[in-house]
Amino acid sequence: MIDLRKSMIAAGAFAATGGAAPPPMPPTVPSAVRFDGALSVLTYNVKGLPWPIAIGRVAAAEAIGDRLRRLRQQGHAPNIVLLQEAFTDQARAMAASAGYRYVVDGPRVDTAAVSGPPRDSGTWWKGETEGRLAGSGLQIASDFPIIAVRRLAFPTAACAGYDCLANKGAVLVRVRIGATAVDVLDTHLNSRGASGVSDARADRAYALQAEALGRFIRAVHDPHLALIAGGDFNVGAAAPRRAVLAAVVARTGFAGSALRGAAARGLSLQRDAVLSMLRAKDWQFFRSGTRTSIAVTAIRVPFGREPDGAMLSDHIGYIADYAVRTPRNGGDA
User: Fold this and answer.
1) What's residue 56's pLDDT?
2) What is d(CA 144, CA 176) in angstroms, rounded to the nearest whole number?
3) Does the pLDDT at position 125 exceed 90?
4) CA 308, 96, 190, 295: dihedral to nearest 10 degrees?
5) Are 205 and 119 in contact (CB under 8 A)?
6) What's the pLDDT band for 260 if we cut at 50, 70, 90?
7) pTM for this structure?
8) Residue 183: which of 191, 172, 194, 196 has the closest Cα?
């Protein structure tokens, strides 16, 4: 979550990192990974914020990248990685350095927002009148070819407090797997307490963002395909947010979340996975398509608490394993 309370000097540093062009998308060539009906997806808010907003993040980004590389060497790397708060160069380079062949960023600082209600005056001291100083901080990396990309920048009025300094939104990619494809979305919604404004104001912005996200999904998702929507949904224990998100999830046709689905099926959950579910911010929602079914089969937590109790981010990064089935499943991607 973006918190610039210490000084507005931080906004300058934010701007210095947020306007850089994302790395070019690699050419679409056959993937070395064979699709066998299993698909694994990591969602992780990596707290990739620049100094002086956060300290020690360069070392943390290097450690996260190293762990992703080790997972690949061990044969346990997630097929798809959804990152949030990947604002710095080091954070944006993690997935590519870990061997992911297809990497796309979410909305940039200059990505035009979709239309929405008019913006009120806002508060300068809370960062609401300065305009976007950084991109969305979103990134999707994949072992399988990304064959289409759609981006959403939330409406200008759909932000509150310090979150307004980032061009928050979503990015949806279509990933070719075997003889079919799957749609995968990454998003990050407005924070509450860290926004620096009243809960009521932050929750109004949240509701606008959630509604915009629902409209975006319904407009660009192919209902024939399975869909996974992950990211930092910033729900927490706030009842108004839970109600808003539940309504959007229902209207969009999601079967539920990977964490709760795994728990309902009696699948083993590590302590950090349970803690992430209770914290209620980092979710993966999923739904089957009319021609593609999807079900969660396991939850793994490569980025939880270290043996000494420390964490590489202020969020837990977990992998959801899915079984994806089509009438003609299998084949090379």
Assistant:
1) 72
2) 6
3) no
4) -80
5) no
6) very high
7) 0.88
8) 172
- The residue with tokens 């906004």 is 11
Q: What would the pLDDT profile of 167-218 be if each residue is shown by its tens digit?
A: 999 999 999 999 899 999 999 999 998 888 999 999 999 999 999 999 999 9
Nearest to 312 by CA among 91, 37, 134, 28: 91
% residues pLDDT > 70 (the chain) = 85
Residue by residue, what is the 3-state secondary structure of the chain? CCCCCCCCHHHHHHHHHHCCCCCCCCCCCCCCCECCCEEEEEEEEEEECCCCCCCCHHHHHHHHHHHHHHHHHCCCCCCEEEEEEECCHHHHHHHHHCCCCEEEECCCCCCCCCCCCCCCCCCHHHCCCCCCCECCCCEEEECCCEEEEEEEECCCCCCCHHHHHECCEEEEEEEEECCEEEEEEEEECCCCHHHCCCHHHHHHHHHHHHHHHHHHHHHHCCCCCEEEEEEECCCCCCHHHHHHHHHHHHHHCCCEEHHHHHHHCCCCCCHHHHHHHHHCCEEEEEECCCCCEEEEEEEEEEECCCCCCCCCCCCCEEEEEEEEECCCCCCEC
CA distance 246 to 260: 13
* pLDDT given at position 252: 95
Residue 99 φ/ψ region, left for φ over 0, alpha for ψ in the -120 to 50 degree band, beta for the rest = left
DSSP bridge pairs for 104: 140
Q: Between the CA atoms of 291, 220, 201 and 166, what dihedral angle is there, to the nearest 10 degrees?
A: 120
Pairwise CA distance, residues 155 & 165, whole Å? 13
Two structure tokens written together for 41: 């997806």
> For the segment 51-106, what is each residue's pLDDT rounded down to a tens digit?
556 667 889 999 999 999 999 999 999 999 999 999 999 999 999 999 999 999 99
Which of 101, 194, 107 lies closest to 142 in space, CA to CA? Answer: 101
Cα separation, 28 vs 258, in Å, equals 29
